[in-house]
Amino acid sequence: MKRISLTLSVLLGLGLTAATQAAEPIRIGSVLSVSGPAAFLGDPELKTLQLYVERLNAAGGLLGRPLELVHYDDAGEAAKANTFVKRLIASDKVDVILGGTTTGATMAAVPLVEKAQLPFISFAGAVVIVDPVKPWVFKTPHTDRMACEKVFADMHKRGLLRVALLSETSGFGKSGHDQCVDVAPAQGVSIVVDETYGAKDTDMSAQLTKVRGSDAQAVLVFGLGQSPAIVTKNYRQLGIELPLYQSHGVASKEFLALAGAAAEGVRLPSPALLVADKLADSDPQKAVVTGYTAAYTQKFGGEVSTFGGYAYDGLMLWADAVKRAGSVEADKVRAALEATRGYVGASGVVNMSPSDHMGLDASAFRMLEVRDGGWTLVD
Questions:
Q1: Which positions fall inside the Leucine-binding protein domain (predicted)?
Q2: Buried b (16+ CB within 10 A) or exposed e, 84-118
Q3: Domains and CATH numbers, the chain
Protein backbone atom coordinates (compact mmCIF):
# COMPACT_ATOMS: atom_id res chain seq x y z
CA MET A 1 0.00 0.00 0.00
CA LYS A 2 1.29 3.42 -0.94
CA ARG A 3 -0.22 6.85 -0.41
CA ILE A 4 1.24 9.87 -2.15
CA SER A 5 -0.01 13.39 -1.47
CA LEU A 6 1.07 16.79 -2.74
CA THR A 7 0.62 18.69 0.50
CA LEU A 8 0.11 22.40 1.05
CA SER A 9 3.67 22.76 2.35
CA VAL A 10 4.94 21.58 -1.04
CA LEU A 11 2.57 23.91 -2.83
CA LEU A 12 4.05 26.89 -0.97
CA GLY A 13 7.22 26.40 -2.98
CA LEU A 14 5.32 26.51 -6.26
CA GLY A 15 4.60 30.22 -6.13
CA LEU A 16 0.84 30.02 -5.56
CA THR A 17 -1.08 32.98 -4.25
CA ALA A 18 -1.88 33.16 -0.56
CA ALA A 19 -5.54 32.57 -1.32
CA THR A 20 -4.81 29.39 -3.25
CA GLN A 21 -2.44 28.14 -0.55
CA ALA A 22 -5.12 28.54 2.10
CA ALA A 23 -7.90 26.93 0.07
CA GLU A 24 -9.10 23.41 0.76
CA PRO A 25 -7.41 21.11 -1.78
CA ILE A 26 -9.30 19.29 -4.48
CA ARG A 27 -8.56 15.61 -3.88
CA ILE A 28 -7.81 13.30 -6.76
CA GLY A 29 -7.99 9.62 -5.88
CA SER A 30 -6.01 7.03 -7.79
CA VAL A 31 -5.67 3.25 -7.66
CA LEU A 32 -3.03 1.90 -10.05
CA SER A 33 -0.97 -1.27 -10.54
CA VAL A 34 2.44 0.21 -9.75
CA SER A 35 3.81 -3.15 -8.64
CA GLY A 36 3.00 -6.71 -9.70
CA PRO A 37 2.60 -8.14 -13.21
CA ALA A 38 1.06 -4.95 -14.65
CA ALA A 39 3.69 -2.64 -13.13
CA PHE A 40 5.05 -1.44 -16.46
CA LEU A 41 1.58 -0.11 -17.19
CA GLY A 42 0.87 1.40 -13.77
CA ASP A 43 4.29 2.94 -13.14
CA PRO A 44 4.15 5.47 -16.02
CA GLU A 45 0.52 6.17 -15.16
CA LEU A 46 1.41 7.19 -11.60
CA LYS A 47 4.43 9.20 -12.73
CA THR A 48 2.24 11.03 -15.24
CA LEU A 49 -0.36 11.92 -12.62
CA GLN A 50 2.34 13.16 -10.25
CA LEU A 51 3.97 15.24 -12.98
CA TYR A 52 0.80 16.91 -14.20
CA VAL A 53 -0.74 17.47 -10.79
CA GLU A 54 2.49 19.30 -9.98
CA ARG A 55 2.28 21.30 -13.21
CA LEU A 56 -1.37 22.20 -12.66
CA ASN A 57 -0.56 23.36 -9.14
CA ALA A 58 2.35 25.44 -10.42
CA ALA A 59 -0.13 27.15 -12.75
CA GLY A 60 -2.50 27.97 -9.88
CA GLY A 61 -4.45 24.75 -9.40
CA LEU A 62 -8.11 24.55 -10.41
CA LEU A 63 -10.81 27.02 -9.42
CA GLY A 64 -8.27 28.78 -7.21
CA ARG A 65 -7.64 25.60 -5.21
CA PRO A 66 -4.57 23.33 -5.09
CA LEU A 67 -4.76 19.68 -6.12
CA GLU A 68 -3.86 16.78 -3.85
CA LEU A 69 -3.14 13.35 -5.28
CA VAL A 70 -4.05 10.41 -3.04
CA HIS A 71 -2.75 7.16 -4.51
CA TYR A 72 -2.86 3.46 -3.63
CA ASP A 73 -1.09 0.57 -5.37
CA ASP A 74 -3.33 -2.46 -5.99
CA ALA A 75 -0.41 -4.59 -7.29
CA GLY A 76 -2.66 -5.78 -10.10
CA GLU A 77 -5.14 -7.43 -7.73
CA ALA A 78 -8.84 -6.64 -8.17
CA ALA A 79 -9.63 -7.34 -4.51
CA LYS A 80 -7.09 -4.74 -3.40
CA ALA A 81 -8.45 -2.26 -5.91
CA ASN A 82 -11.92 -2.72 -4.43
CA THR A 83 -10.61 -2.10 -0.91
CA PHE A 84 -8.69 1.03 -1.88
CA VAL A 85 -11.58 2.50 -3.84
CA LYS A 86 -13.76 2.08 -0.76
CA ARG A 87 -11.11 3.92 1.25
CA LEU A 88 -10.84 6.75 -1.28
CA ILE A 89 -14.59 7.26 -1.16
CA ALA A 90 -15.29 6.80 2.54
CA SER A 91 -12.12 8.04 4.26
CA ASP A 92 -10.17 10.20 1.82
CA LYS A 93 -13.28 11.95 0.49
CA VAL A 94 -11.86 12.38 -3.00
CA ASP A 95 -13.59 14.39 -5.72
CA VAL A 96 -12.73 12.02 -8.55
CA ILE A 97 -11.05 8.63 -9.01
CA LEU A 98 -8.58 8.08 -11.83
CA GLY A 99 -7.25 4.67 -12.66
CA GLY A 100 -7.87 1.12 -12.72
CA THR A 101 -4.75 0.10 -14.66
CA THR A 102 -6.32 -3.24 -15.54
CA THR A 103 -9.82 -4.26 -16.57
CA GLY A 104 -10.15 -6.45 -13.46
CA ALA A 105 -9.29 -3.60 -11.10
CA THR A 106 -11.57 -1.25 -12.98
CA MET A 107 -14.58 -3.55 -12.87
CA ALA A 108 -14.01 -4.09 -9.13
CA ALA A 109 -14.37 -0.33 -8.69
CA VAL A 110 -17.38 0.23 -10.95
CA PRO A 111 -20.19 -0.75 -8.54
CA LEU A 112 -18.59 1.34 -5.78
CA VAL A 113 -18.32 4.55 -7.79
CA GLU A 114 -21.77 4.04 -9.26
CA LYS A 115 -23.26 3.73 -5.77
CA ALA A 116 -21.27 6.73 -4.50
CA GLN A 117 -22.12 8.72 -7.66
CA LEU A 118 -18.50 9.79 -8.08
CA PRO A 119 -16.79 10.45 -11.44
CA PHE A 120 -14.41 7.63 -12.33
CA ILE A 121 -12.07 7.64 -15.35
CA SER A 122 -10.44 4.30 -16.10
CA PHE A 123 -7.15 3.67 -17.89
CA ALA A 124 -8.06 0.08 -18.84
CA GLY A 125 -8.97 -1.25 -22.26
CA ALA A 126 -11.95 -3.61 -22.23
CA VAL A 127 -15.13 -2.46 -23.93
CA VAL A 128 -17.25 -3.72 -21.01
CA ILE A 129 -16.06 -0.71 -18.97
CA VAL A 130 -18.20 1.67 -21.02
CA ASP A 131 -20.54 -0.63 -22.93
CA PRO A 132 -23.20 -0.57 -21.71
CA VAL A 133 -22.78 3.03 -20.58
CA LYS A 134 -22.59 3.52 -16.82
CA PRO A 135 -23.49 7.03 -15.63
CA TRP A 136 -20.35 7.67 -13.56
CA VAL A 137 -17.74 5.62 -15.48
CA PHE A 138 -15.54 6.93 -18.30
CA LYS A 139 -12.35 5.60 -19.93
CA THR A 140 -9.41 6.92 -21.97
CA PRO A 141 -7.91 3.95 -23.90
CA HIS A 142 -9.34 2.59 -27.12
CA THR A 143 -11.45 -0.51 -26.59
CA ASP A 144 -10.39 -4.07 -27.23
CA ARG A 145 -13.15 -4.28 -29.85
CA MET A 146 -11.55 -1.42 -31.77
CA ALA A 147 -8.18 -3.18 -31.52
CA CYS A 148 -9.64 -6.37 -33.00
CA GLU A 149 -11.22 -4.42 -35.85
CA LYS A 150 -7.99 -2.55 -36.59
CA VAL A 151 -5.88 -5.71 -36.60
CA PHE A 152 -8.29 -7.75 -38.71
CA ALA A 153 -8.63 -4.91 -41.22
CA ASP A 154 -4.84 -4.87 -41.62
CA MET A 155 -4.75 -8.64 -41.97
CA HIS A 156 -7.46 -8.52 -44.61
CA LYS A 157 -5.49 -5.98 -46.65
CA ARG A 158 -2.55 -8.40 -46.60
CA GLY A 159 -4.70 -11.37 -47.61
CA LEU A 160 -4.35 -13.03 -44.20
CA LEU A 161 -7.82 -14.48 -43.68
CA ARG A 162 -7.21 -17.50 -41.43
CA VAL A 163 -6.12 -16.45 -37.95
CA ALA A 164 -4.84 -18.15 -34.82
CA LEU A 165 -5.95 -16.30 -31.66
CA LEU A 166 -3.91 -16.70 -28.48
CA SER A 167 -5.48 -14.80 -25.58
CA GLU A 168 -4.64 -14.28 -21.93
CA THR A 169 -7.02 -15.49 -19.21
CA SER A 170 -7.00 -12.05 -17.54
CA GLY A 171 -10.01 -9.75 -17.68
CA PHE A 172 -8.41 -7.83 -20.54
CA GLY A 173 -7.51 -11.00 -22.40
CA LYS A 174 -10.92 -12.62 -21.97
CA SER A 175 -12.73 -9.52 -23.15
CA GLY A 176 -10.33 -9.13 -26.08
CA HIS A 177 -10.91 -12.76 -27.04
CA ASP A 178 -14.67 -12.36 -27.02
CA GLN A 179 -14.58 -9.14 -29.01
CA CYS A 180 -12.24 -10.60 -31.63
CA VAL A 181 -14.42 -13.68 -32.05
CA ASP A 182 -17.44 -11.42 -32.43
CA VAL A 183 -16.01 -9.02 -35.03
CA ALA A 184 -13.98 -11.50 -37.11
CA PRO A 185 -16.79 -12.51 -39.53
CA ALA A 186 -17.57 -8.88 -40.42
CA GLN A 187 -13.88 -8.36 -41.20
CA GLY A 188 -13.79 -11.40 -43.49
CA VAL A 189 -11.53 -13.31 -41.10
CA SER A 190 -11.87 -16.84 -39.75
CA ILE A 191 -10.39 -17.88 -36.40
CA VAL A 192 -9.01 -21.36 -37.07
CA VAL A 193 -7.09 -21.80 -33.79
CA ASP A 194 -8.32 -20.52 -30.43
CA GLU A 195 -5.89 -20.98 -27.51
CA THR A 196 -5.39 -19.33 -24.10
CA TYR A 197 -2.55 -18.86 -21.62
CA GLY A 198 -2.29 -17.68 -18.02
CA ALA A 199 -0.95 -14.24 -17.12
CA LYS A 200 1.79 -15.85 -15.01
CA ASP A 201 2.71 -18.63 -17.46
CA THR A 202 6.37 -18.74 -18.39
CA ASP A 203 6.21 -20.90 -21.52
CA MET A 204 3.53 -21.00 -24.24
CA SER A 205 5.26 -23.46 -26.56
CA ALA A 206 2.44 -26.02 -26.28
CA GLN A 207 -0.18 -23.59 -27.57
CA LEU A 208 2.14 -22.31 -30.29
CA THR A 209 2.92 -25.85 -31.44
CA LYS A 210 -0.79 -26.23 -32.21
CA VAL A 211 -0.62 -23.00 -34.18
CA ARG A 212 2.37 -24.25 -36.16
CA GLY A 213 0.48 -27.39 -37.10
CA SER A 214 -2.60 -25.51 -38.31
CA ASP A 215 -3.49 -23.76 -41.57
CA ALA A 216 -3.46 -20.33 -39.92
CA GLN A 217 -1.99 -17.50 -42.01
CA ALA A 218 -1.37 -15.08 -39.12
CA VAL A 219 -1.42 -14.99 -35.32
CA LEU A 220 -2.94 -12.47 -32.91
CA VAL A 221 -1.87 -12.43 -29.26
CA PHE A 222 -4.23 -10.60 -26.91
CA GLY A 223 -2.75 -9.87 -23.50
CA LEU A 224 -0.77 -7.40 -21.42
CA GLY A 225 2.21 -7.28 -19.09
CA GLN A 226 5.20 -9.56 -19.60
CA SER A 227 3.43 -12.63 -21.00
CA PRO A 228 3.00 -11.40 -24.59
CA ALA A 229 6.78 -10.90 -24.75
CA ILE A 230 7.25 -14.51 -23.66
CA VAL A 231 4.83 -15.63 -26.38
CA THR A 232 6.83 -13.64 -28.91
CA LYS A 233 10.11 -15.27 -27.85
CA ASN A 234 8.56 -18.76 -27.90
CA TYR A 235 7.16 -17.98 -31.34
CA ARG A 236 10.61 -17.29 -32.76
CA GLN A 237 12.20 -20.21 -30.90
CA LEU A 238 9.73 -22.58 -32.61
CA GLY A 239 10.62 -21.13 -36.00
CA ILE A 240 7.09 -19.97 -36.79
CA GLU A 241 7.24 -17.57 -39.73
CA LEU A 242 3.62 -16.38 -39.89
CA PRO A 243 2.95 -12.65 -39.41
CA LEU A 244 2.54 -11.95 -35.68
CA TYR A 245 0.23 -9.31 -34.25
CA GLN A 246 -0.17 -8.07 -30.69
CA SER A 247 -2.89 -5.94 -29.09
CA HIS A 248 -2.56 -2.39 -27.79
CA GLY A 249 -2.01 -4.00 -24.37
CA VAL A 250 1.75 -4.07 -25.11
CA ALA A 251 2.11 -0.68 -26.79
CA SER A 252 5.20 0.45 -24.93
CA LYS A 253 8.98 0.42 -25.14
CA GLU A 254 8.96 -2.12 -22.31
CA PHE A 255 7.54 -4.76 -24.64
CA LEU A 256 10.43 -4.18 -27.05
CA ALA A 257 12.92 -4.49 -24.20
CA LEU A 258 11.37 -7.72 -22.94
CA ALA A 259 10.92 -9.38 -26.33
CA GLY A 260 14.23 -8.18 -27.79
CA ALA A 261 15.05 -9.20 -31.35
CA ALA A 262 12.07 -11.58 -31.38
CA ALA A 263 9.74 -8.55 -31.67
CA GLU A 264 11.05 -7.62 -35.12
CA GLY A 265 8.16 -7.52 -37.58
CA VAL A 266 5.41 -7.60 -34.95
CA ARG A 267 2.45 -5.36 -35.73
CA LEU A 268 -0.02 -3.79 -33.33
CA PRO A 269 -2.58 -0.99 -33.09
CA SER A 270 -1.46 1.94 -30.93
CA PRO A 271 -2.18 5.56 -30.08
CA ALA A 272 0.01 8.12 -31.82
CA LEU A 273 2.18 8.68 -28.74
CA LEU A 274 4.68 5.94 -29.61
CA VAL A 275 5.46 7.58 -32.95
CA ALA A 276 5.18 11.24 -31.93
CA ASP A 277 8.29 12.21 -33.91
CA LYS A 278 6.96 10.51 -37.04
CA LEU A 279 3.64 12.36 -37.20
CA ALA A 280 3.04 15.00 -39.86
CA ASP A 281 3.19 18.58 -38.61
CA SER A 282 -0.43 18.95 -39.69
CA ASP A 283 -1.56 16.10 -37.42
CA PRO A 284 -3.73 17.60 -34.63
CA GLN A 285 -2.10 15.32 -32.05
CA LYS A 286 1.48 16.31 -32.93
CA ALA A 287 1.81 19.17 -30.44
CA VAL A 288 0.13 17.24 -27.62
CA VAL A 289 2.14 14.03 -27.89
CA THR A 290 5.48 15.75 -28.48
CA GLY A 291 4.78 18.08 -25.53
CA TYR A 292 3.92 15.18 -23.26
CA THR A 293 6.99 13.25 -24.40
CA ALA A 294 9.29 16.18 -23.67
CA ALA A 295 7.79 16.85 -20.24
CA TYR A 296 7.83 13.19 -19.16
CA THR A 297 11.37 12.42 -20.35
CA GLN A 298 12.75 15.62 -18.82
CA LYS A 299 11.25 14.68 -15.45
CA PHE A 300 11.82 10.93 -15.38
CA GLY A 301 14.12 10.01 -18.27
CA GLY A 302 13.53 6.81 -20.18
CA GLU A 303 10.78 6.26 -22.72
CA VAL A 304 7.14 7.30 -22.70
CA SER A 305 4.40 4.70 -23.02
CA THR A 306 0.81 4.80 -24.17
CA PHE A 307 -0.23 3.90 -20.62
CA GLY A 308 1.19 7.13 -19.29
CA GLY A 309 -0.71 8.81 -22.12
CA TYR A 310 -3.97 7.28 -20.86
CA ALA A 311 -3.30 8.82 -17.45
CA TYR A 312 -2.50 12.19 -19.01
CA ASP A 313 -5.81 12.16 -20.87
CA GLY A 314 -7.75 11.05 -17.80
CA LEU A 315 -6.41 13.87 -15.65
CA MET A 316 -6.70 16.53 -18.34
CA LEU A 317 -10.20 15.50 -19.41
CA TRP A 318 -11.30 15.79 -15.79
CA ALA A 319 -9.51 19.12 -15.29
CA ASP A 320 -11.11 20.49 -18.45
CA ALA A 321 -14.54 19.33 -17.24
CA VAL A 322 -13.99 21.00 -13.84
CA LYS A 323 -13.07 24.29 -15.52
CA ARG A 324 -16.12 24.19 -17.78
CA ALA A 325 -18.39 23.19 -14.91
CA GLY A 326 -16.89 25.83 -12.63
CA SER A 327 -17.21 23.29 -9.84
CA VAL A 328 -16.03 19.92 -8.53
CA GLU A 329 -19.58 18.90 -7.66
CA ALA A 330 -19.92 15.36 -8.97
CA ASP A 331 -23.08 15.79 -11.04
CA LYS A 332 -21.79 18.96 -12.71
CA VAL A 333 -18.42 17.39 -13.56
CA ARG A 334 -20.11 14.26 -14.91
CA ALA A 335 -22.31 16.38 -17.18
CA ALA A 336 -19.29 18.37 -18.36
CA LEU A 337 -17.38 15.18 -19.17
CA GLU A 338 -20.30 13.96 -21.27
CA ALA A 339 -20.26 17.30 -23.11
CA THR A 340 -16.55 17.04 -24.04
CA ARG A 341 -16.04 17.88 -27.71
CA GLY A 342 -12.85 18.22 -29.70
CA TYR A 343 -10.45 17.46 -26.84
CA VAL A 344 -7.11 16.62 -28.49
CA GLY A 345 -5.24 14.19 -26.27
CA ALA A 346 -2.51 11.60 -26.28
CA SER A 347 -4.94 8.88 -27.35
CA GLY A 348 -6.82 10.82 -30.03
CA VAL A 349 -9.49 13.45 -30.50
CA VAL A 350 -12.22 12.87 -27.91
CA ASN A 351 -15.90 13.60 -28.49
CA MET A 352 -18.03 12.23 -25.66
CA SER A 353 -21.79 12.17 -25.19
CA PRO A 354 -24.33 10.68 -22.77
CA SER A 355 -24.19 7.50 -24.86
CA ASP A 356 -20.40 7.45 -25.38
CA HIS A 357 -18.13 7.67 -22.33
CA MET A 358 -14.90 7.12 -24.27
CA GLY A 359 -15.31 9.40 -27.27
CA LEU A 360 -12.70 7.87 -29.60
CA ASP A 361 -13.18 6.38 -33.05
CA ALA A 362 -11.02 4.03 -35.13
CA SER A 363 -9.04 6.93 -36.61
CA ALA A 364 -7.35 7.37 -33.20
CA PHE A 365 -5.57 4.03 -33.66
CA ARG A 366 -2.37 3.82 -35.73
CA MET A 367 -0.99 0.53 -37.03
CA LEU A 368 2.66 0.12 -36.05
CA GLU A 369 5.35 -2.40 -36.92
CA VAL A 370 8.58 -3.13 -35.09
CA ARG A 371 11.52 -2.42 -37.40
CA ASP A 372 15.16 -2.28 -36.35
CA GLY A 373 14.09 -2.44 -32.72
CA GLY A 374 11.74 0.56 -32.88
CA TRP A 375 8.20 1.53 -33.83
CA THR A 376 7.32 2.45 -37.43
CA LEU A 377 4.01 3.65 -38.86
CA VAL A 378 2.57 1.32 -41.48
CA ASP A 379 -0.66 3.27 -42.14
A1: 25-371
A2: bbebbbeebebbbbbbbbbbbbbbbbbebbeebeb
A3: 8-142+286-358 (3.40.50.2300), 144-270 (3.40.50.2300)
